[in-house]
Amino acid sequence: MKNVTDSFLSLGHRPFAGSFGFNTDILSTNLINLSVVLGVLIFFGKGVCASCLLSDLLDNRKQRILNTIRNSEELRGGAIEQLEKARARLRKVEMEADQFRVNGYSEIERERFNLINSTYKTLEQLENYKNETIQFEQQKTINQVRQRVFQQALQGALGTLNSCLNNELHLRTISANIGLLGSMKEITD
User: How many domains, in total, are found in the chain?
Assistant: First the structure.
């Protein structure tokens, strides 16, 4: 052990007598460090090839990277396929929405047209009903006026006849008037 320590001390500059120091010469210390590392590797790594280990590690790493890239490409392909399906569904839904919108507008216009026509028909029916009611009431009023005028005329005529006629003439006039009234009643009914 004394030789190893001496070799460390001999490579650097010599310390003063009786003192302890470090070797600061970089070239000589790196050689010593490399020789120690190689010695440890050789001693503990008997039968293991360092380049083989490194090659295996790099190959494994390369395979993992390639597998990751392959998986990413597959996922990307699946995502693109799903995106295209989603776009196709979107186009289909947009077309259906446009069709519903067009059908909705035409249905609204058709309903509006039907409502307007129905309203006109209802107004026309109401107008006809109003006119029929007015005509009926006018006819009823005219008939009532005719009856009153006729009754008043008849009463006046009867009063005149009663004062001027005798019994026999009176009975014939009454019979004739009754016949006239019967025929007028048939005409008005």
Answer: 1
Domain that holds residue 140: 37-188
DSSP code, position 12: S
- The verdict on residue 173 lying in a domain is yes
Is the pTM higher than 0.70? The answer reads: no
Share of the chain residues as helix, strand and coil, in percent rounded to the nearest 5: 90, 0, 10
> pLDDT of 78-112, one tens digit each?
999 999 999 999 999 999 988 888 888 888 888 88
Asked, for residue 27, whether it belongs to a domain, the answer is: no
Q: How far is 77 from 42, CA to CA, in rounded Å?
A: 49
Judge contact between 28 and 12, C-beta under 8 A: yes
d(CA 78, CA 82) in angstroms, rounded, equals: 6
Q: CA 23 to CA 10: how far, in whole Å?
A: 8
Q: How far apart are CA 142 and CA 136, in angstroms?
A: 10
Asked whether the beta carbons of 154 and 177 are under 8 A apart, the reply is yes
Residue 21 is assigned to a structural domain of this protein: no
